[in-house]
Amino acid sequence: MKEWWVQVGLLGVPLLAVYLHIPPPQLSPALRSWKSSGSFFTYKDLNIFYRDSTGAVGSSDVVVLLHGFPTSSYDWSKIWEGLTQRFHRVIALDFLGFGFSDKPRPHGYSIFEQATIVEGLLRHLGLRHQRINLLSHDYGDTVAQELLH
Question: Per-residue pLDDT averaged across 38-67, rounded?
């Protein structure tokens, strides 16, 4: 009788092959809408998704939203409208490896790089020297701490 690990391996190889050829699920209408209302900017040949909305008239406040793990900028979808009523500009991005942003493999992901990408987005949007409000949760809290440092 063959060793158990050989039998598992013989069964696992075809299952892995099938899994690798399964197409990703279709986006929901809400996610399609979220993606179509956003844009991409390039960071070191990688595409980073972001959403940028103007809102409150008479306000000059800008808020940047930093999502958690393992999610995306879509975390903020339910409060987006309310934020645009308070802030002049509401900006959210998908960190590298999350949401609609590129997911390079292999890649050494780091909090420092995510913070650098946020800074790159602010430069891209011409906001490098403007006062920015940060709203973050979970993984985004750590990126926010690095940005504040």
Answer: 93
In 18-149, beta strands by DSSP E = 39-43, 46-54, 62-66, 89-93, 133-136
Percent pLDDT > 70 in the chain is: 99
Is 57 a member of any domain?
yes
**Stronger pLDDT, 7 or 37, i.e. the higher one:** 37
Q: Could you identify the residue written with the tokens 């780091």?
A: 110
Full DSSP string of 55-76 = --TT---EEEEE--TT--GGGG
Q: Is 66 a member of any domain?
A: yes
Instruction: Report which of 89, 84, 96 is spatially closest to residue 139, judged by C-alpha positions.
Output: 96
Residue 48 phi, psi (nearest 5): -115, 125
CATH (domain of 78): 3.40.50.1820
Nearest 10 degrees: Cα torsion 115, 53, 130, 149: -20
Please tell me the total count of domains within the chain.
Answer: 1
What DSSP element (H or E) covers 18?
A: helix 4-20
